[in-house]
UniProtKB/TrEMBL annotation:
Residues 54-95 are annotated as: Disordered. InterPro entries: E3-bd_dom_sf, Lsr2-like_dimerization, Lsr2_dim_dom, Lsr2_DNA-bd. Residues 85-95 have a biased composition (Basic and acidic residues). Residues 74-106 form the Lsr2 DNA-binding domain. Pfam families: Lsr2 (PF11774), Lsr2_DNA-bd (PF23359). Keywords: DNA-binding. One of its GO terms (molecular function) is acyltransferase activity. Residues 1-58 form the Lsr2 dimerization domain. This is LSR2-LIKE LSR2 ANTIGEN IMMUNE RESPONSE SIGNAL PLASMID LYSYL GP61.
Amino acid sequence: MARKVQVILTDDVDGSEAAETVNFGLDGVSYEIDLSDENAARLRDQLAHWVGNARRTGGRRSTGRRSGSGGTSNAAKIRQWAQENGHEVPPRGRIPNEVRQAYEAAQH
């Protein structure tokens, strides 16, 4: 018998569907938080002033915001596209990167 385990991420702030996990640090402590596109954008906007005046000490270089940040409805669009194009995608939770990449490639 096959078993399928599905992980459903929810926004740690408001309980909505999470689109990404955001990592950040403060006072030598690293944190990660699962956020919807909207709440991730809010966090980045609120930290922008402080980050803009800070010195970088390590970590990976930012290549800009992740693409596909069109709000929570973007996940619904990707899911619909994936189902219509034969991709397996969970009804809730994180959308696999391969599916997101295929969706983005199909949009260009």
